[in-house]
Every structure is written in C-alpha cells, then in structure tokens.
Write a structure and sequence with these properties.
- This protein is mainly beta.
- The protein has one domain (2-499): Porin.
- The protein contains 7 helices and 20 strands.
- The strands form 2 sheets. The protein has a 16-stranded antiparallel barrel with strand order 3-4-5-7-8-9-10-12-13-14-15-16-17-18-19-20.
- Strand 7 (186-194) and strand 8 (200-208) form a beta hairpin.
- The longest helix has 14 residues, at 32-45.
C-alpha cells in the first residue's frame, strides 16, 4: 500500500506539468545559440521594462528555468503550456526548495530558495491627430504629445508561495496619478487528481482584483488586445461593466475546474474593495458609505465556461463568460444626497469568445474575438434624473489577428466596436468642450488598431501602435457639439519596454 501511495503521489506531481517542462526544455535545447545571443543582448541593454498588464514576467522564467517562449507565443499571449502553468497555480518550479516535512512525510513547507521577483518599466510617447482644447477654458490648445518617462514602473512577486499556492502580484507606479498602488493581483490555490478514466482534473480557487484577470485565454478583457495602451489618449465614454470597469476596485473569489486540459468551468463572486478610500467619519479605510460611488450591492456573480481543442500545432478555444453587477450610485453631496441604500443600477453582461493559435517553428499566428452584450436596468439613475431611459443596452465587439516571424518581427490588427442605446442624460453634452461627451447622446464608437512590433530579445519589445476612429461617442463629425471629429482622436503610440 505504501508503494502504491508513494507512486500515486509522484504521478500527481509530474502530470501534467512535468511532462510540459520536459517538452519545453527539449525545445529550448534546439535553440541554444539563439538563447546565448538573447542573454548577451539583454545584459548589454540593461533590461528594465514590460507592460503592466502582461503575465509574461521574468519571475516565472527564473522559477521554471524556461525561456519566455515556453509559456507565450509572444508575450503576453499564453500558449497551452502557459495556460496549464496558470491553471496549476503558478507553482511549477525547477528552483532548489527549502523543505519542511512531518514524520508522516506530509509536506508542510516548500519555498523557492530565491524569491521570484522582477521589475518592469514602460516608456512611451503619445501623439493625437488634433490637440485637445485647453482645460483652462481660454482660447488655445493643450500641448500635443505626451512623453511618459516612465509611463509605468512595476515590481512583481510572481510564482510559488507554498506547494499548492501561487501568486501573480503587481505593485505599480503610474505617471498619470503619480502614486504607487496595487495593480493586477491573482492568488491561486490549485490541485490535481487523476480520474479513473486516466483523465487529469485540475481544480482550484482564485482570489483576484479584476474580473477576467484569472482567465486562461487572451480573448477576454483583462489580457486582451491591445496588450498595452497609452494612458494619455482620449477614451470613449462608454464601456461594459466587465470590460475593465472594476479593475483593482473589487475583490473576487472564484472556484474553477479544468478537465482533460480542454473543458473549463468557473464560478465566483466580487465585492467592492476601493483602494485609497477613507471614511469621512473615521478618517480611516472604510467602511464604504454614500461618499463612495458605484458600490456593488451585496456581491456580483461571475461565471466562465470554455472548451479547447488541440491538434498538431493548432489550438482552438470557444467559450462564454459573464457577470451581473448591482450598483448603488452613491457619490453623495449637498446637492445630491444619495446614500448606499434603495434603488440600484443593474448591469448584466453576457459574452462569447473564441481564440485560435498556430505555433510553428518560424511562423506564429493567432486570432481572438469577443462580443459582450450588456443589459442595463437603471432604476437608481432614472429616478434621480441621471438617465433618460429606465433601461439601456450596450454591446462591445473586438476581433484581433496577430502574426510573428521567428518571434521577432510581427504585429497585430484589430477592429473594435461599441454600440448601444441613445440616452441624452447618460451620455449627454456638457456646458463646455468635454471631448468625451456625445452631442447626440449615443455611445457608438468604432475603429481599428494596428500595431507593429520588434522583439530583439524575448524580454525587450519596441512597439508602434496606431488607433483610428471611424466613429467616436455617436458621431463621425462634430461628435461633441464643439467641432471635434472622430478622427481628431486618432492616436500614434510609441512604446519601449524591457524586463528583468
């Protein structure tokens, strides 16, 4: 019995992650010369930087002993191996361990001897097709062109914490706010069982602060294209609730299961967890009261289902996901005495997604698409006169194709569209040039993003991104009522980043 028990435990440890580890190392041995060149180049460059919304951090490379290409097509898009690494709780490691065992051979401690730390810095330049009006209200325009040096700096602890517990944790300095704060963070517990039919079942828990951050595919919002974007561009005024609206302002706990590396299901809840909020009465952190805005009433349920099929060098995923947020408007003031009780605004999001990947020796191609439909029941806003309709809807669609040659030269092209109900009060024009308002009360925005990338080393990336709007906040011309056109917000974004 003891031998069988030990054999089972060993099998659980190596399957399926150790199999992938062996495969990845075998692939790495076929490119030793290239790896040496990458290493020498990286040392010469003095690596600093990477986009903060990416899971491709050097911490994981240090922990696993694998090159970035084991887990990513070209970061941050995950390969199947990368998805399995994430599903298994970021715990696969080849580092020497500090071990702690009981007399019954129960593992009580397993720490990497070196902490999986990394640092990233992002430097960028952003140019709009037409400068913004001066915010002082005086005639003239703001300076066109925003140099961000840095745009963001992030420190990561990303990797194994305990035998079945791992984390992707990020602390970021943002030049827009000039502050340091918690960024995307995902704590995971994961385990594996081999079912009687010899099929593996991975199951676990995710504690995170951004809906879809925990997802395994790059077709969902948190890690979808564009993988990096300027914080100095002009953004449309409307977006669905699940599409980044609550990033870093909620805390969520979800349970997931992945059967046979193909069938995935997840169910969880989110609750408001505002950062930087002080209760006006206590002067301390929380509890949230009427001075806070858009606070989740109770908890917001989140769900996800997906199926992935692999064959040869191809993989195809189809799935669906969604969430329902009931929000108390709050934001009380002397002129708007609103408390955290009574009527809510309800946002129900249901989305479909698909992702295809081809991973060749020389060529890599991927395609990802998602469509999000949001039903809005605006009981609180309609009663307070902040929306013209008691019910609205909003739809977001994105389709992206990416190609890379030798993981070095490549680019992406994506189409995006947001359409929805016309609501003069919700999306209406302001009393002065607002740029992000709508003269006709429509949220409709459409356009394209094209991006060219040069990856001289796997942890260094140079990007040139162009965003073109065919419609912005409901119009192509004079969309804001003050003469600004959609194409005036077209953006050129140049990014350089390194990571170490």
């Amino acid at each position: 019995m003891a031998e069988n028990s030990e054999s089972t435990m060993a099998r659980r440890e190596i399957y399926p992650c150790e199999i992938y580890l062996r495969r990845a190392r075998r692939l790495d041995r076929n490119s030793i010369a290239r790896r040496i060149a990458i290493l020498l180049g990286a040392v010469t460059a003095g690596i600093f930087l990477m986009t903060p919304s990416a899971l491709a951090v050097p911490s994981f490379a240090r922990q696993t002993g694998l090159s970035c290409e084991a887990c990513h097509t070209v970061f941050p898009e995950l390969t199947h191996f990368g998805r399995m690494f994430k599903a298994n709780g970021y715990t696969l490691t080849s580092l020497p361990q500090v071990q702690g065992m009981t007399e019954e051979k129960e593992q009580r401690l397993s720490l990497n001897q070196l902490p999986p730390l990394s640092m990233m810095v992002q430097v960028s330049d952003t140019q709009l097709a037409k400068a913004l009006p001066d915010s002082s209200g005086l005639p003239g325009r703001a300076q066109n062109g925003t140099v961000a040096f840095p745009q963001q700096v992030s420190i990561f602890y990303a990797g194994k914490i305990a035998p079945q517990l791992g984390v992707f944790g990020q602390l970021t300095y943002d030049n827009g706010s000039g502050t340091v704060g918690i960024d995307n963070t995902d704590f995971r517990f994961a385990d594996l069982v081999i079912l009687p039919n010899e099929k593996p079942l991975i199951y676990g828990l995710s504690l995170n602060n951004n809906p879809t951050l925990q997802d395994l595919w790059n077709s969902t919002p948190a890690f979808g294209f564009p993988y990096q974007a300027s914080n100095a561009n002009v953004s449309p005024l409307a977006g669905t609730a699940i599409d980044g609206t609550f990033a870093q302002s909620v805390a969520g706990l979800s349970a997931y299961a992945l059967w046979n590396e193909s069938v995935y299901a997840e169910l969880g809840v989110y609750r408001s967890a505002l950062q930087g909020y002080s209760n006006p009465i206590t002067g301390a952190a929380g509890p949230l009261d009427g001075t806070a805005s858009n606070v989740v009433s109770g908890v917001a349920p989140y769900w996800r289902v997906a199926y992935e099929q692999q064959w040869d060098q191809h993989s195809l995923e189809i799935g669906a996901y969604g969430a329902t947020f009931k929000l108390l408007p709050g934001a009380a003031s002397a002129t708007a005495p609103t408390t955290l009780q009574g009527a809510t605004n309800r946002f129900q999001d249901v989305a479909e997604d698909v992702q295809y990947q081809f991973l060749g020796d020389m060529h890599i191609f991927s395609m990802a698409a998602t469509h999000i439909h949001e039903s809005q029941t605006l009981d609180a806003s309609f009663a307070s006169g902040n929306s013209a309709n008691p019910k609205d809807d909003l739809n977001t669609s994105r389709v992206t194709g990416t190609y890379f040659y030798r993981r070095k030269w490549g680019g992406s092209a994506g189409y995006f569209s947001t359409t929805g109900s016309t609501d003069a009060l919700l999306y209406g024009i302001g009393s002065k040039p607002g740029v992000t308002t709508s003269a006709n009360g429509s949220p409709n925005t459409t356009g394209w993003i094209v991006e060219a990338n040069y990856v001289p080393w796997l942890n260094v990336k140079l990007s040139l991104q162009y965003t073109s709007y065919t419609k912005f906040n409901g119009g192509s011309t004079n969309y804001d009522g003050y003469g600004r056109n959609a194409h005036d917000n077209n953006t050129i974004y140049i990014l350089t980043w390194f990571a170490y």
